[in-house]
Amino acid sequence: MMVNVNGHLTLPVPLGRGLRQGDPISPILFNLALEPLIRAVNDSQRIQGFLPPSLSLPTIRGPLYGPSSFQPIKVLAYADDLLIFLCNAADFAEVQRSIQHYNQASNAKMNFDKTVAFSISGIPHLHWLPALASYGITKWHDRCSDEPLTYLGYPLMQSTVHRRLFQGRLIAKITRACDIYKQRNLSVRGRATVLNTLILATLSHVLSVSWISLQTLQVIRRICREFLLFRVFPPVSFNILQLPLKKGSLGILDPPSQQQALQFRWLTPLIQQHHHPTIVFQWIGAHLASIAPVVLYDHRLPFLTFDFLFDSATVFSALNNTSDLPTAIPLSYSLSLPLSAVVQWTSEFSLQEQKSFDTVLVQDAFELVVGLSCLRPKTLPSDRPNLTVGRTRLCLPNLPACEQRLQGSGALDSFCKYLIADALDIGSERITPKYFRTHRQKKLLQSIPTRSPVHTKSTMLWSFFWKLKIPLAIRTPWYRLLQNKFPCAATIHKVVSDLCNSSCRLCTPRLITEHVDHFFFLCPPKRLVWEQIWLHFFGHPMITHEVYKAIHLLIFPHQRLSLILNESIIACTILGIWKAHWRFIFDEVPFDPIRVFQNILSLVGPFRSNALSSLV
Q1: Strand, coil or helix: 7
Q2: CA-to-CA distance for 403 and 356, rounded, in angstroms?
Q3: C-alpha torsion angle, residues 221, 227, 228, 231 (rounded to 10)
Q4: Distance CA 521, CA 518 (A)
Q5: Could you give the 3-state DSSP secondary structure of residue 541?
């Protein structure tokens, strides 16, 4: 075999039986090698495997629905990892015989040292231990184990102790990663990239399958905020940091919204396969139908925020907006609305009493009079013989639309579609995971004051700022300036009045307030620096308004030579003044305009060299 390297074939390489580590054909060969064993276990009539229980729910009298028979699950495989389901000791013995035959035929050997047996229900089964030990399997896991079992990176949490231990380890892992990257000189943009792509990568893997409590996610959010705003004071609101870059933010992932979107991403293919015979689809369908407060024309609806779908304001808005609605609302949907959304409450009912009716439907309290086309209150409890109270809401199992609730509908009901119009993709009319991101961004924008730079500065300005070719050391201070969170004396005094006064220390003994503009170019020593920069690079005396536009509006003046970008000159000047100012504050190094000007020229030097080398 010869290898093609950059268009040139290498010398012939003799082929053996092994593969190099990392060879991309390895997973395919694993699948082919394990296929005989998997088929032997699946096709064996003597192995019962795992047969799922009935779909009857504890809150409903009788089964909600169910096919005549289920196919048992016997084995699941991922590369060389096998998950074999056993019902009794006879299953275990038959599986061992299949493994022995496979070992003899393939010259392979099953590694029982890494094999772990666990109870699906979490209930301890001590009678399994002797049979497992006879084959060298000594690891057993159930809800009494000290820690959760991890399979393919996902924890199998079977008790509260397991969940607490796993979530505690996850928090510790993220905290440790943040502490490591805090020590590196990263800009806010660099920290955001590290956080989204490296630190939260582990969290993203877990969130797609495992459930993590909101309290734990809030702790993780706080850790992420502390990492981003490390040594940044006054801090930028974390709500702003979660917005996209074009809004003047960093696009930080929100763990709770990420959990919703990731789990919705993996559940959507299952709940959209209409009339699908798989166990997972039928279980999910039964569960969603049992907890939904309205008839489900689409099984994806419960994954959207409850307030967005079923609160009274949304329903009333939909009913009052007749321009985009059909002339007749389906009767089944009208009767399935929450009772609290269609009644007019008086002042004698408290808000808590009103919310208590969110779990009661219109059809629970009223009946339709067909001849008069009106609703009549129900008076006798016997009108609802099949009504049972669940943990959080009422369930009606014998609805005419029961089959439709379970199997879904190819097209959304028009009224239901109006309620979730913002969540639907225009082309496919499918609810996509990006809904959670856009819905979250809308809420964030509503919570941010209108005077914030997020609203007052244009998206073009923010997009241009992130593309500037400037030193990384000045990107964070300049970003804080644009966000009105720059640490000048006036701002710090406003936040913590005991820390310092609002006067400029360079202008002492005169009491002049140090605001942002005074910090950078209105203070006399710093103004001298700008005057020298303007004459050196732009060839004319400094104009204060031009400096203001360059710093705040990113409108840069024209220069005599075009070798160096204007943005690089302004950024290096800001950086030089920034460093000299804090050396004066903390180290008591005098602010010398001549020395600061020379330091700025040295900062501009690499940009000049890069420009000259690009011309060669």
Answers
A1: coil
A2: 29
A3: 140
A4: 6
A5: coil
- Here the tokens at position 499 are 């820390």
Burial state string for 356-386 with b = 16 or more CB within 10 A and e = fewer than 16: ebbbebbbbbbeeeeeeeebeeeeeeeeeee
Rounded CA gap, 5 and 76, in Å?
38
The letter for the amino acid at 519 is F
* The predicted structure's pLDDT at residue 419: 57
Q: What is the DSSP string of 255-321?
A: HHHHHHHHHHHHHHHHHTSTT---HHHHHHHHHHHHH-SS--SSTTGGGS-HHHHHSHHHHHHHHH-
Q: Are 46 and 90 in contact (CB under 8 A)?
A: yes
Q: Which helix (H) or strand (E) holds 505?
A: none
Which residues in 463-610 belong to E strands, given as ranges? none
What one-character DSSP code corresponds to residue 303?
A: G
Please give the span between the terminal C-alpha atoms of the chain, in angstroms, as a whole number.
Answer: 43
Task: Provide DSSP, 590-604.
Answer: ---HHHHHHHHHHHH
Res. 20: pLDDT tops 50: yes
What six digits make up the tokens of 558? 């024209």
Eight-class DSSP state of 140: E
> Six-digit token pair at 11?
């010398």
For the entire predicted model, the pTM comes to 0.71
Cα 579 to Cα 190, 348, 476, 572, 597: the distances in Å are 20, 64, 13, 11, 12
Contacting residues for 194 by C-beta, under 8 A, at least 6 apart: 181, 186
E strand spans, 142-298: 149-151, 154-156
Helix (H, G, I), strand (E, B) or coil at 102: helix
HSE (side-chain half, CA atoms, 13 Å) at 95: 22
Alpha carbon dihedral 534, 540, 543, 545, in 10-degree steps, equals -80
Contact present, 408 and 299 (Cβ < 8 Å): yes
Q: Rounded to the nearest 10 degrees, how much is the dihedral formed by the CA atoms of 228, 230, 236, 237?
A: 60
> Is residue 387 pLDDT above 60, yes or no?
no
The most distant pair of C-alpha atoms in the chain lies apart, rounded to whole Å, by 95
What's the length of the chain? 616
Per the CB < 8 A criterion, the answer to whether 551 and 571 are in contact is no
CA-CA distance, 246 to 250, in Å (whole number)? 9
Cα 203 to Cα 595: distance, rounded to the nearest angstrom: 48
Give the separation between CA 520 and CA 527, rounded to whole angstroms: 8
Structure tokens at 50: 């795992």
- Residue 512 has, within 13 A of its CA and on its CB side, a CA count of 15
Q: What is the mean pLDDT of residues 218-238?
A: 92
pLDDT higher than threshold 60 for residue 88: yes
Q: What is the distance between the alpha carbons of residues 323 and 241, in angstroms, rounded to a whole number? A: 38
The structure tokens listed for 591 are 């602010």
Q: Residue 507, exposed/middle/buried by CB under 10 A (0-12, 13-18, 19+)? A: middle
Comparing 281 with 195, which gets the higher pLDDT? 195
Contact 208, 265 (CB under 8 A): yes
**Rounded-to-integer distance, Cα 261 and Cα 267, Å:** 10
Q: How far apart are CA 388 and CA 394, in angstroms?
A: 6
SS3 string, 39-54, reads HHHHHCCCCCCECCCC
